Amino acid sequence: LVPTAFLLIIYVKTESQKD
């Protein structure tokens, strides 16, 4: 089970990497 906070961090990171 993955905590929602962890998923949110990954989401933000991937969005930030989008150039």
Automatic annotation (TrEMBL):
Keywords: Chloroplast, Membrane, Photosynthesis, Photosystem II, Plastid, Reaction center, Transmembrane, Transmembrane helix. GO terms for cellular component: photosystem II. The keyword Chloroplast applies. InterPro entries: PSII_PsbM, PSII_PsbM_sf. One of its GO terms (biological process) is photosynthesis, light reaction. Signal peptide: none annotated. It comes from the Eukaryota. This is Photosystem II protein M.
